């Protein structure tokens, strides 16, 4: 286990979501965080450490999802 460095890159800090980060934006969007959901799991791993492979895989999944949402938003705006 290592510290949540990959998770830190998207804003999951050792004390909670980092202000102004993607994680903070995600938390604001979902509202109440329930135990066991993906957000809670990622935050917990950032706080206590996560296996490197899992952290990297989840970081890539989150980034690809964000990219997909951004592309869809641009296409929606373009019409």
Explain what you see.
The chain has 79 residues and is mainly α. The chain has one domain. It has 4 helices and 2 strands. It has a two-stranded antiparallel ribbon. A hairpin with a 2-residue loop joins strand 1 and strand 2 (16-17). The longest helix has 27 residues, at 52-78. The protein is globular, with a radius of gyration of 13 Å.
Features:
mainly alpha, 5% strand, IFI6/IFI27-like_sf, membrane, 65% helix, 2 strands, 4 helices, two-stranded antiparallel ribbon, transmembrane helix, Similar to similar to An08g11220 [Aspergillus kawachii IFO 4308] acc. no. GAA93195, 79 residues
| Whole-number mean pLDDT | 80
Number of distinct helices:
4
Helicity range: 55-70%
Walk across the major sheet and give the strand order: 1-2
General shape: globular
Instruction: State the major sheet.
Output: 2 strands, antiparallel
Oligomer: single chain
Radius of gyration: 13 Å
Helix- and strand-based class? mainly alpha
Distance between the first and last residues' Cα: 46 Å
Order of helices and strands: HEEHHH
Subcellular location: Membrane
Transmembrane segments: 7-30, 50-74
Family: Belongs to the IFI6/IFI27 family.
Keywords: Membrane, Transmembrane, Transmembrane helix
Blueprint of the fold:
Elements (H helix, E strand, L loop, with lengths): L4 H4 L3 E2 L2 E2 L4 H9 L7 H11 L3 H27 L1
Antiparallel strand pairs: 1-2
Condensed summary:
Belongs to the IFI6/IFI27 family. The protein is mainly alpha-helical. It has 4 helices and 2 strands, in the order αββααα.
